[in-house]
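Appendix B, record 7
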Amino acid sequence: MAPTLYMLDASPAVRAVLMTAKAINLQLNLRDIDFFQKEQLQPEFLQMNPQHTIPTLVDDDGFVVWESQAIMAYLVEKYAKNDDLYPHDPKKRAIVNQRMHFNTGVAFFHMRNIAKAILWYYESRVPEKERQGAVEAYGFLETFLDGNEWVAGDFVSIADYSLIATLSTLNTVVPIEYDEYPNVVAWMVRCESLPGYPANKKGLKAAKEVFKIRMSKTLFSHSMAPTLYMIDPSPPARAVMMTAKAINLDLNLKEVDFFNEEHLKPPYLKMNPQHTIPTLVDDDGFTIWDSHAIMIYLVSKYAKDDSLYPTDLKKRALIDQRLHFESGVVFAYLRRIARPIVLGGQTFIEPKNKEGVIDSYGFLDAFLEGRDWVAGDSVSVADFSLLSSVGTLARVIPVDETKFPRVVAWLNRCQKLPEYEVNKTGEKAMADFLLSKLE
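Structure tokens (predicted):
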């Protein structure tokens, strides 16, 4: 029987093993893993490899090992006719090991992060940090190859197969410039003449196609419009949606499963380590959270004029003050009220929080003296921001019209705005939920 390799052609790590096997004339029993259907997470695979990485090797005697470079070393030690690819000489082996760990910890590390960004998070371009990391890896390898034909010296080793699998893939998304890295480019050309290299070609072509498709701006809606990760009841999300409607900007809305803690899962945390809702990912991959920052960004980039967030410094300062009032006072009290009810099962509103909300109405009423809108004579992002919170609170803690007539009048004006339509459903849902939990 031949050893069985659980694999995926497009994986650089798999291709490194395939090239090694071909170089030592070892026939492998290849078992494709449906990675995108998460076959590697099924119990059968996890029993073999709890780290659920690809490739995984099961030898004919049942021995199991994963991590491509451990597999390569094992196959050469057991099946190769000589030690040329992985010398027994301690010094030579040490250099080969160092180069393979360089691949694992540097070159492949950035390759994996780039692949995750493109394949899982639908980034339309390589994240700048990872691009810089790839370029740095090219620089290190350029130095390793100075005066050497192969990465560990004057002989071909499994480190060459390991690194060429990674570098040939990395080169498709972060091109290697000949003028800057002539040693690397010459080495890559030499690698193409190695007896094992044909085993790299099919998977490399597949990887290129996958990257090309995933990075195509014509196939993924978030590449054509900014993507907003949101939930309708969220006041900050509704503030952003009202702003987008006001500037006639289509957003690709992605509902976050809040109660199943999707915002606490690694994919979301990679976008937004603060795990707040909403989060915006623009068509070029730029990511920003906090509704106030998102609203200003969208108006600054997409609006046809500056009416919602004027360039005039004094007008802008007043809007900024109102936005900070919303985040630090109004929404802060809404969050204090909602969090223990939504997450802790509390059935009452603490008196100090209710008093804080009523004080907020008083401040807002004062802001509105002599003006129709919260920061001047025209609607601004500050109105959308405050409307999202005050509108919700007013349904739970009603605004006393005799005390705060300007707030009531402002709310009535806001409800006649065309943008209010995208706020209405979520506002009611949030308020109804809170009221249903209160005794």
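Remarks on this record: The first helix runs from residue 12 to 23. The radius of gyration is 29 Å.
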